[in-house]
Amino acid sequence: MDHPENEDIYKGLKVNKGVREVPSVSPYLKKRIKRRDYTPAEFTEGILEGNITILSQAVTLVESAKHEHQQMAQEIIERCLPYAGKSVRIGITGVPGAGKSTSIDSFGMHLIKEGRKLAVLAIDPSSERSKGSILGDKTRMEALSREKNAFIRPSPSAGSLGGVARKTRETIVLCEAAGFDTVFVETVGVGQSETAVHSMVDFFLLIQLAGTGDELQGIKRGIMEMADGIIINKADGDNVDKARLAASQFKNALHLFPPAESGWFPKVLTYSGYYNIGIKQIWDMVAEYVRFTKDNGYFDFKRNEQAKYWMYESINETLKDSFYNNKAVTAILSQTENQVLSNEISSFVAAKRMIDTYLANLSGK
Amino acid sequence: MDHPENEDIYKGLKVNKGVREVPSVSPYLKKRIKRRDYTPAEFTEGILEGNITILSQAVTLVESAKHEHQQMAQEIIERCLPYAGKSVRIGITGVPGAGKSTSIDSFGMHLIKEGRKLAVLAIDPSSERSKGSILGDKTRMEALSREKNAFIRPSPSAGSLGGVARKTRETIVLCEAAGFDTVFVETVGVGQSETAVHSMVDFFLLIQLAGTGDELQGIKRGIMEMADGIIINKADGDNVDKARLAASQFKNALHLFPPAESGWFPKVLTYSGYYNIGIKQIWDMVAEYVRFTKDNGYFDFKRNEQAKYWMYESINETLKDSFYNNKAVTAILSQTENQVLSNEISSFVAAKRMIDTYLANLSGK
């Protein structure tokens, strides 16, 4: 009914049906930006006032692929930066089926009741999200989605992991400037995205299920060692003993890991997202971590390291993009790769050959 | 006595003592290459005949920073490639004090006695190795260093991890062409080098010590999950029970990890490098792994993935080198980094600014 394209199609009898362009950005985006052309200063003002509509529109600019939207987004971010950085950023991961949405709903509601303002963001580079899944996301977090102090935003739509992660990181800045003092960044624990999430949050939370077999199949190797806290879900009813057993197994395993750089020893808790049991303890754990790392200086150290990491990551991503989208390079890439695989040339000679091609092409030779 | 510079200095009374240049490469290298200027074809022929002197000289070319040496090295590698790839490549890591050298000595001697030919290489990007430490390395492996079927070569001297790792990878090719059917790549388990080693070997072996506390301090997080086998050293005398306990703890912990891509479940063994106990079992484990992964196709799959990885890794390293050594970039790098750290500009704007500077400089604008 409120789909903007419908307006074009059913405007009356005089509609001239020509060849219709496929919209390059969401028609919603076009509509919103046309509706009111804010300046970056106005956007920033609205964000600082905590205006959620304006915040959403600014995030849409951050997510847009259009050059002029990106320019505006960067200006807004630059203006918001001095007001950002004051939240506690928590990464949350777990395989599908671990009960992430229910957990975030319960955990988030606990924070809202404590008087906090919560932004829930996500990184999910593989999925192509549409309007539908935005609603889906909100439905997944039933209680939270009705709270005015909660801002739920799904993952930026498809793109490279680097691109999607950058957009989420920039959205954190805007949310913090808008007064959100807690940020969740959710991801599915099956791909490369955990490392990206880990590099933008203060605390990394891994949701697990009781049991030591199939439940772990989906989780990628290496993730357990990134966790500052492991929480075992569905510790309710008949499952309590199993969850406790799992918790003690995880605790033992963590003792075999070398200590984290933060000096923090990861905690293992059991809880039930569905029955709202043990939720307070999760937040207490995060709060204790924040106190602990602020005291020993690791909190600020990590934030600085992350800012640098993202700068260098952006540089590397851009360099790679420039290389792999270069026509002279793409013309010989797969052929060269095959020569490496059939042992005709070494990996290094192959690389050098393509780099030479690239640089010659860049300098117009 | 056979120091080449002595020849210049003490040649007779007519020596003209001018300002002497500091040698940019090892004087040994100069001498060897001068002594007999092999062509790449001759080098390759010598290597294929298993001539260790010629192999050593070729490795020296691989390690040289000189452009003409590099060119020759690449030609030799290209000629050797069809004869390479037939060894079992084993990565070995462990913190200093875990008994790596003694273990490699015992493990290696077992292989020599089985009729195998063993090359022992290393990756150690942080150290600046000199002639002294080559001898040091050989002394560390007392028995092996006397065996004609063992070729021990220390880590290429200082350079970036990427550079050092590439040289080691290329040295593997030459050793394999020379008929070595087993290659050890050793590294100290404290830095970034394990990932590099992991990406050039078939089997990754982690040496641990009994105990669950301080001994682990040095091992980097994430390494345990890369291991195909964990071997607990010093399982001798009073220490046997402690080592067995540690082994069972590691076994339990590994059960909490998700299964490896290879389908192989990592084994945990106890042994004594010093007293030569349990060494055969280590090789049996590796052999079982090789059979298992050759049967399920993972062995070849991984080799191909590694070849591609190194091609793309070389490309990325070269792109980064070109960027970070660009004068226009270095002129603004630290200033821009500071602006990011003080929240003046976003990481992305900083990155974009530097990329623009770089590309403008490249195309001569």
Question: Can you walk through the features of this model?
Answer:
Chain A is of the alpha/beta class and 365 residues long. Chain A folds into three domains: 24-82, Single alpha-helices involved in coiled-coils or other helix-helix interfaces (Up-down Bundle), CATH 1.20.5; 84-296, Rossmann fold (3-Layer(aba) Sandwich), CATH 3.40.50.300; 313-362, no CATH class. Helices cover 52% and strands 11% of the residues of chain A. The first copy, chain A, has 14 helices and seven strands. Chain A has helices spanning 4-9, 27-35, 40-48, 52-63, 67-80, 100-113, 131-140, 161-177, 193-198, 240-255, 279-295, 298-324, 327-341, 347-362, and strands at 88-94, 118-123, 150-152, 182-188, 203-209, 229-233, 267-270. The first copy, chain A, has a seven-stranded parallel sheet with strand order 3-2-4-1-5-6-7, sandwiched between helices. The longest helix of chain A has 27 residues, at 298-324. Chain A is globular, with a radius of gyration of 23 Å.
Name the shape of chain A in a single word. globular
Structural class of chain A: alpha/beta
Biggest sheet character of chain A: 7 strands, parallel
pLDDT averaged residue by residue of chain A: 82
Oligomer: homodimer
Uncertain ranges of chain A: 1-18, 127-136, 214-218
Q: First CA to last CA of chain A: what distance? A: 55 Å
